Amino acid sequence: MKHVVIVGGGFAGLNCALKLAFHPNIRITLIDKNNYQQFQPLLYQVATAGLAPTNAAFAFRNVFRRYPNVDIKMGEVVSVDLKTRAAEVADGQKYQGDFLVLAAGSQVNFFGTPGADKHAFPLYSLHDAEVLRSRILAVLESADRDPSLIAKGALNFVIVGGGPTGTEMAGALGDMIQLALKDLYKDLDVSKAKVFLVDRDHKVLSAFSSKSQKYAARMLEQRGVQLKLGTSAKEVTSGHLVLSDGTTIPTHTVIWAGGLKASSLSSDLGVPLAHGGRLDVQPDLGVKDFPGVYALGDFANVTGADAKPLPQLASVAEQAGKHCAKNIKTVVDGGAGKPFHYLDKGIMAMIGRNSAVAELGKHRHELQGPIAFAAWLGVHAALLTTLRAKIDTVVEWGWDYLGKSTADSVLDRASQANVDWKEEEERSDSEVH
Length: 433
Ligand SMILES: Cc1cc2nc3c(=O)[nH]c(=O)nc-3n(C[C@H](O)[C@H](O)[C@H](O)COP(=O)(O)OP(=O)(O)OC[C@H]3O[C@@H](n4cnc5c(N)ncnc54)[C@H](O)[C@@H]3O)c2cc1C
Fold this sequence. Notes:
Layout: E1 2-7, H1 11-20, E2 26-32, E3 36-38, H2 43-47, E4 57-59, H3 60-63, E5 70-74, E6 77-81, E7 86-89, E8 94-96, E9 99-102, E10 106-108, H4 116-119, E11 120-122, H5 126-145, E12 156-160, H6 164-184, E13 194-199, H7 210-222, E14 225-229, E15 233-236, E16 240-243, E17 248-250, E18 253-256, E19 260-262, E20 279-280, E21 293-295, E22 300-301, H8 314-332, E23 346-352, E24 355-360, E25 365-368, H9 370-383, H10 387-403, H11 414-417, H12 421-432
Parallel strand pairs: 1-2, 1-9, 2-5, 9-21, 11-18, 12-13, 12-18, 13-14, 20-22
Antiparallel strand pairs: 3-4, 6-7, 7-8, 10-19, 15-16, 16-17, 23-24, 24-25
Helix pairs in contact: 1-8, 9-10
Bound molecules: flavin-adenine dinucleotide.
Flavin-adenine dinucleotide is lined by residues 7-13, 31-34, 37-38, 40-41, 43-44, 76-77, 103-105, 123-124, 164-165, 263, 265, 297-299, 312-315, 317.
């Protein structure tokens, strides 16, 4: 019986484990620091109270409950020995395999922006989304009680990064403000809420066609989003954001969608790393000089057909996970692994209600508006890990769409999200004097 140790149960690691399951000569240990898979494409909907956290996270033990050869271990891997194919978790337990699959994904990259690590809200994990949702709700509650806080930026929401995550977040916030909040906060002048989207580029959605970019910009502006393009975040404090063009925006909610780097695990592997701390792999996804070790998904630097690195996308990670499993099975059966070829089905981004962009297939057939909106929902529902998740999420979307409401406005992370307005006032007084 061969043992496969998988580090990280995201799109890559989970699909690798699912494909290896039921093989008569293979047992799998899947290690993850969480006991659930997080579905990043839906995190912005959790952050804007459109979906509950349980719509965007799936417990591994449920997913694998009928898979006798998959063992789940919850633990943070703190070191990896590529030579012996062993992973060690924080409490010292070691897992050594005949094969080691590294699929630890990525983490936020603040690019050294002063104050961002302390004061900005990243959006990479389920925890990030829950804390951010609580901050958005906390400032709304504060301004509802004391409207004078609006002048101090309580209702200014700034998103840094105009890629798909930042654009989706900005559009969802715009919709939330225009459609849902009036009914929820009867005393609050919701029209005073402002959403800013900052990007150093002069356009949003840089990976998309210029037609899609223009459409996205127009749809964001229709939702009241103010585009601050051609400028970048220079400093984040607890009460404002300074831009490279000198503008200062008073705000208590800076949302960071400005960049990613490979999970910190890559920095301790003792091998040279590619751009963004990603681990270089050979065409079969194996790590050079370390037989039996593979790297996948956001953690790996995989070269595509155009000799450029493949993008950090769920579809790339999912296909790589399945391909890696196939290669491991082939090697176990005495054969040699085959090169990975990514099947590019296209890219899409949601802007908001009835508005999305999609560029489908190799020839990038472009869709915009309600058709792209429906396509986005369909594709993401299909990607969800379990049947129950697919049904629950589609039902939630239906309620939100028909009721123009936010399903899950629960401020459950108050200790991490509430603003101490007194302390803020004292700080800004001391800055002035
Ligand atoms: C907000 C957001 C929205 C996105 N939207 C889309 C989209 O719409 N479409 C799309 O194609 N892509 C999207 N992406 C990108 C996509 O989510 C990633 O490319 C994909 O998740 C990568 O899969 P992965 O398996 O490599 O990593 P992940 O899915 O991040 O999984 C990595 C796993 O490793 C675990 N892990 C990390 N470090 C350790 C450790 N030291 N020990 C143990 N476990 C560890 C983590 O807990 C996690 O479960 C989005 C990303 C974000 C952040």
